[in-house]
């Protein structure tokens, strides 16, 4: 493999993980239940009947995992705070034990020379709030703003970066529109209020973090090209609609203070006033990228993306990937990352703050990431994926994108939502029987890349 590209000395390397996927101990220390606890308890929802009860046991082993990331030479450790650990019922009484836990985690990161980057929401809505309507209910956004203020008050003196909500588009479409994720609703376009309420929660939490003295506030929005299957008008229009729903419906309100044309009318409440909150200034704009999509006019048949089924009733069809795929079935196409970074730069101009790749990584084909006879995990596919995408970031910078950092998903293997433990994303292998950590070949490769900069 050729020498890695050079990045500016100020460029920051990091990793990212989520609480629900790694912590385990889901009812320990006063944590309340979340919609994902409820969803996982429903028979047939999770591959193999897997349970997140232990996951990677970050709750007890955070010092070991933080140490591994410190030894990696990374600058930033992105983690998520579990809303039900802090406010067990979603509103009202604060759980001091939960705040104390994340206090210890952040102290451990600082001691390891890492910059803590808490994400305040990674889809784990407290169950009582979902029972009251969840993200269809404006009150959930208000409660989220209160929760954000509590966490920021405790951690703002040490957290270097903040991400209010992770991938709100995924919650809306897989959680509320299509029923593939918690809370398992299948509301199709009736789910649009969850778009506005999540964006409002984002804006309220930005203001709350800022008021508590926090800085380094951004996003973790998934973005990717949506390429039309052909030049036919129907395919082009379908791809434009898909891109609006997956990209611009989320970034336009944050960066422009306006919805894409025609979409504000579909949103609830005092939209114009809310947009002033939603567009509160940011310090960086975080981009999660995995794969592009190829879109055609609706075929009347169900399709899939990254292993998740899409209804035949949606107004476009996601086509099969071209070329090699990830373990989840997504197309491996690093130029899609370069393209979307340049597209964001051109679309928003001076309104776009510096960019950070807040997630990028891959699973390999299931069953291919176990330690070999030599005790090592040879994940050449991950190394190839990361190498090609890091080179794509360098090309995007050369093409004018102001990218300041790249964070790999994820430091350790974890519970991969409905795929259970069949998909491994980690730089470090986790034996789910013994919880032993084994750095993979990709860990050593990334460690060397960081050291070379």
TrEMBL record:
<feature type="binding site">
    <location>
        <position position="409"/>
    </location>
    <ligand>
        <name>substrate</name>
    </ligand>
</feature>
<feature type="binding site">
    <location>
        <position position="290"/>
    </location>
    <ligand>
        <name>substrate</name>
    </ligand>
</feature>
<keyword id="KW-0326">Glycosidase</keyword>
<dbReference type="InterPro" id="IPR001360">
    <property type="entry name" value="Glyco_hydro_1"/>
</dbReference>
<keyword id="KW-0624">Polysaccharide degradation</keyword>
<dbReference type="InterPro" id="IPR017853">
    <property type="entry name" value="GH"/>
</dbReference>
<dbReference type="InterPro" id="IPR033132">
    <property type="entry name" value="GH_1_N_CS"/>
</dbReference>
<dbReference type="GO" id="GO:0030245">
    <property type="term" value="P:cellulose catabolic process"/>
</dbReference>
<feature type="binding site">
    <location>
        <position position="122"/>
    </location>
    <ligand>
        <name>substrate</name>
    </ligand>
</feature>
<dbReference type="GO" id="GO:0005829">
    <property type="term" value="C:cytosol"/>
</dbReference>
<dbReference type="InterPro" id="IPR017736">
    <property type="entry name" value="Glyco_hydro_1_beta-glucosidase"/>
</dbReference>
<keyword id="KW-0378">Hydrolase</keyword>
<comment type="similarity">
    <text>Belongs to the glycosyl hydrolase 1 family.</text>
</comment>
<dbReference type="Pfam" id="PF00232">
    <property type="entry name" value="Glyco_hydro_1"/>
</dbReference>
<dbReference type="GO" id="GO:0008422">
    <property type="term" value="F:beta-glucosidase activity"/>
</dbReference>
<feature type="binding site">
    <location>
        <position position="166"/>
    </location>
    <ligand>
        <name>substrate</name>
    </ligand>
</feature>
<feature type="region of interest" description="Disordered">
    <location>
        <begin position="356"/>
        <end position="379"/>
    </location>
</feature>
<keyword id="KW-0136">Cellulose degradation</keyword>
<feature type="binding site">
    <location>
        <position position="21"/>
    </location>
    <ligand>
        <name>substrate</name>
    </ligand>
</feature>
<feature type="active site" description="Proton donor">
    <location>
        <position position="167"/>
    </location>
</feature>
<feature type="binding site">
    <location>
        <begin position="416"/>
        <end position="417"/>
    </location>
    <ligand>
        <name>substrate</name>
    </ligand>
</feature>
<keyword id="KW-0119">Carbohydrate metabolism</keyword>
<feature type="active site" description="Nucleophile">
    <location>
        <position position="359"/>
    </location>
</feature>
<protein>
    <recommendedName>
        <fullName>Beta-glucosidase</fullName>
        <ecNumber>3.2.1.21</ecNumber>
    </recommendedName>
</protein>
